[in-house]
From TrEMBL:
Domain of life: Eukaryota
Keywords: Membrane, Transmembrane, Transmembrane helix
TM region(s), chain numbering: 12-32, 38-57, 64-95
Name of protein: ABC transmembrane type-1 domain-containing protein
Organism: Elysia marginata
Length: 99
């Protein structure tokens, strides 16, 4: 009988360890997602300042300015989309490992 109690206790302890590890992984991925979102917001803010203030002061040709602004906006949008896809994929992978 005591052997059965020890086996049950060992299984319960192992299950608790797995749950704790899964929670840690999910929390770390969520924290990384927040850090990435804040960094992306900072980058977008810098790009907005550059596009709104710096470029018009340095590029006097209006057609050239339009092309540069469009290129900058497209690049920023692509980068943000890639970051969002990577964060969503990482979060989904972490959630999948928890099941």
């Amino acid at each position: 009988m005591p052997l059965l109690v020890i086996e049950v206790a060992a299984e319960a302890t192992a299950a608790a360890v797995v749950v704790v590890l899964v929670v840690v992984v999910v929390v770390v991925v969520a924290a990384a997602a927040v850090v990435v979102a804040v960094a992306a917001a900072a980058v977008v803010g810098v790009v907005v300042v550059v596009v709104a203030v710096v470029l018009p002061l340095t590029i006097k040709d209006r057609d050239c300015l339009v092309v540069v602004v469009v290129v900058v906006v497209v690049v920023v949008v692509v980068v943000v989309v890639v970051v969002v896809v990577v964060v969503v994929a990482a979060t989904a992978a972490a959630a999948e490992t928890s099941h």
